[in-house]
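User: Hi! I'm working on a homework problem where we have to compare a predicted structure to a textbook description. Could you give me the structure for the chain below?
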Amino acid sequence: MNTIAEHIADFLKKYPPFDNLNFQELSEIATSIRVINLEKHKILFKINDVLHDSFYVVASGVINLSVIADAEETLLNKCFEGDVFGLRPFFAKNNYMMTAKAREESIIYAIPIATFRPFVANNSKVLDFLLHSFALNTSNPNDKENLYGKLISDNVYYSDQQSEMQYFQSLSYNVTPLIATVSSIVQEMAQLMTNANTNSVVVCENNYPIGFVTNTDMCFKIASGRFPISATIDKIMSSPVVTVVENVSLAEAQLLMLKYNVTHLCVTQDGTDKSEVKGVISEHDLIVAQASNPGVLIKEIKRSQSPKDLRLIRERLTELIQKSIHKNIPLSHVNNIASEINLAIIKRSVELSILDLGSPPVRFAWLSIGSQGRKEQLLPTDQDSILIFEDVTADKYRDVKEYFLKLGKRTTSILEKIGYEPCPNGHMASNMLWCKSLTDWTKQYNNWMNTPGENSNELSSIFFDFEIAFGEQKIEEAIENVIFNNVKNNALFFDFLGNDALRKNSALSFFKNFIVEEEGINKNKFDIKTRALLPLIDGARLFSLSHNIRGVNNTYLRFKQLAIVDPRNSEIYLNCAEAFLTLSKFRTLEGLTNDNSGQYINLQELSKVDKENLKNALAPMKELEELIKTKFQLTQFS
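Assistant: Happy to help. Predicted structure tokens:
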């Protein structure tokens, strides 16, 4: 081995994932490595460049990785000595999605993917390292233990949870593949492939898959003259077939294509080659699936020009939620993703309204309240919102409010077209009661909180669950300050909220049977929203306000935070947190199955196990109720 290759091998063995290879393997790799000298500010590859045949390791210097976000170049990461980057050719066929530029004079090792691929396929640790890092869009997963070496996936980064969603994301694929037998004639199958507009055929024997024939096989083996067009299909098929189960994830499919260096996977009944063919997954299917990840949806929302565009994205979100729940992704993660996409849709709806109306006369904030404000809207339930605009002089107030009422009406109309029904109680920014100046809103909250009995008819607790969707952050902070200034020593307000939390209808009878609706279209169904979820939501809000917990509006996260600040009752809070997730999942599945809000559960359709799980999830509510009675003086409004 030459001294340069030996020097490179010595260098690589210090860094992951190369530290999982022996010196002989590293030496073999090193002999094919190309050394690149990059001058300061020199670009190695940029966004939309065709993928290279190599990936890269920084030998010395610093490489900046950047993306274009909202028309601005954003620095994503810096790669130092030993860092690996440019891995996109391993996992995708579309062009680079970021730019790699030398921050200073640098030396880069270019490792041919064709040379490195066999070592990846044969070494599970190297494979796991690459796959885990790419699929989760994260830096080196060993970074907590190692201060050197990061692996950059060349995907655009969003958040760990969004990336985790993509890792588990299910695939859509061809469920009616062309099937051939070993005696099928190539010419006949080529005609069938053309007619069906497909690029593959599964070859079966005794109904079990034994091989694939793709367009590539047709080109290299038939068009080249190696085999006549009259040959039987088994002469040109590629085998053995790599088989997978029906609910294989995006990342799992990427892994298998990488490991076996194939472009198609065969979906079978039990995931083996000894069961019935159910479909075919192609590389194209992987690319399409990546286009449905949460980050891409948010990008598409920003580019949307009509309610129709946004409605289609909202429908894709519903599909993503359904597949994620089917893959058993934690509901708390699904909630985070769905809430960010919902907020992005609301923000874009406000932007489209402003484009029609012209620029706002003053700064303002559009706040989502209720389930949207708590980031708990997995289903397209009704919309709840308020609008707060900056204070203006008395002579301008009427005109300014008129503009924002128009903005509210236009935006709520857009949201209705997208699929968010108007709030039946009128809690929307299009209502003149809930569209007003910061001073008026300050007075409103002061009145609600200091004289709750006098305003009980219009006080709804959902006004204390809000999240800014568009506008001035300082306006939201001002309202938050008003609320937390008013909770200090405010026994009357907590008396009202506590009684309101305990006023919900019971979920179970004395004999532990579900209490169902007695009449109407939902007769004999269980109201999971009113009888199960709302008591938990109200309890979490009540205790969060009393413990001065700011910036946490989600019910699950409120209970988790309460377990920290009130350790004596942590077990109750943690039980309530888990109960809330369980009940939310029941409601979401009901809503997805029946294309509605999921509020009413048909108990007859639940299995015995599901009924028991549902009943067990209701158990912590009694403890929470007793804690409310113990903690607060519930007298005046009892």
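For your comparison, note the following. The radius of gyration is 30 Å. Residues 265 and 398 are 64 Å apart (CA to CA). Good luck with the assignment!
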